[in-house]
Amino acid sequence: MQDLTVSFSGGRTSAYMCWYLINYKSSEYNLHFVFANTGQEHENTLKFVDQCDKFFDLKLVWLESVAHYGERKSSTYKVVNYETAARNGEPFESMIKKYGIPNKSAPQCNRELKVNPMNHWLRDNDLRKGFLAIGVRSDEIDRINPDTAKSRNLVYPLAFWHPTTKEQIRHWWAAQPFDLDVQEHYGNCKTCWKKSDRKLYTVAKEHPEYFDFFIDMESKYADYGAAKGPQVFFRQHRSAKDIIREAKDFPDHKMFTDIMPELQLDFFGLDQAGGACGSESCEIFSD
After folding, report:
1. Which of 14, 124, 146, 254 has the most crowded Cβ, counting Cβ within 10 A?
2. Do 25 and 133 fall within a single domain?
3. Residues 6+ away with beta carbon under 8 Å from 22
4. pLDDT digits (tens, 9 = 90+) for 144-193
5. Is 2 exposed, middle or buried (0-12, 13-18, 19+ CB in 10 A)?
């Protein structure tokens, strides 16, 4: 059988993909499940990943990025587990110390915290010639780059093998014995620069302390990396402190609310287009 490595991002979509592959594709592929921890995940995300690992018997491999200073070498990895996984941004800070602060113009966080560690792990385990499953749904097909998919042997089970939308996944999880106890605007890295302003302002009002790590990184490493001039995380050259300040004037009635979507049975889930969290998520090799 061919090898199929499954990239588990820690969210509901990729977790559902794991369940689907275990139940419907394990007779066709040798499945390998991998999670890359950035150190800035919500604690309940880590708990959810651990629950899925045990409940679905994934035999999950937990990776964390290892930066190499003074060398022309991409980030490699170390293997951790739920108990030893970084909770205070240690892999993230290590990456920033070498490559600088990531933002829209320099999105190296996904590359060095997820893609390159995964590449090294695949190489070390002789899995580079196999397939790699990515958790992109049928209602976010526009995130798929066909050229990248072909060159890297990427497959998208929830887009093509078993077309599934965001609302279908949310309702499926609601019927399970456990679920991801993280509101949508806290998903992935808690204050990810990819999030919409509305989500960032909501996080800043509810938990301003979640921005402490980014504030600390901007104070320490603004001039690190290849970019010219002091760097900050957020769009329009805004700092973490700028986001917190702007959030104070953001109207309460416009705060982001995580609402269970109505179950739609259309293929593309067009009612969710443009508003889904997928555009902000950090699945590896997705555009």
Report:
1. 14
2. yes
3. 31, 56, 57, 58
4. 999 999 999 999 999 999 999 999 999 999 999 999 999 999 998 999 99
5. exposed
Does 40 share its domain with 170?
A: yes
Tell me, yes or no, whether 154 and 222 share the same domain: no
Q: 155-161 long-range contacts, Cβ below 8 Å, gap at least 24? A: 155/4, 155/131, 157/17, 157/20, 157/21, 157/25, 157/133, 158/13, 158/16, 158/17, 158/20, 161/25
- Cα separation, 163 vs 153, in Å, equals 19
Looking at the fold, whether 139 and 233 belong to one and the same domain comes out as: no
Side chain identity at 205, as an amino acid letter?
K
**pTM of the model as a whole:** 0.90
CA angle 93, 37, 62 (to 5 degrees): 135
Calculate the CA 8 to chain-centre distance.
9
Give the Cα separation of 114 and 162 in Å (integer): 25
**Residue 170 domain flag:** yes
Pair 32, 164 in one domain: yes
Cα four-point dihedral sign 83, 50, 140, 171: negative
Average pLDDT over residues 225-248: 95
Q: Which two tokens stand for residue 133?
A: 């499953």
What percent of the chain shows pLDDT beyond 90? 86
Which residue intervals of 74-155 are DSSP H helices?
Answer: 90-99, 108-110, 116-124, 146-152
Q: What is the mean pLDDT of residues 206-232?
A: 95
Are 65 and 28 found together in one domain? yes
Q: Is residue 45 located within the same domain as residue 103?
A: yes
- State which residues form the domain around 84: 2-183+261-275
Tell me which DSSP letter residue 229 carries.
S
Clarify whether residues 268 and 250 are in a common domain: no
pLDDT at 262: 77
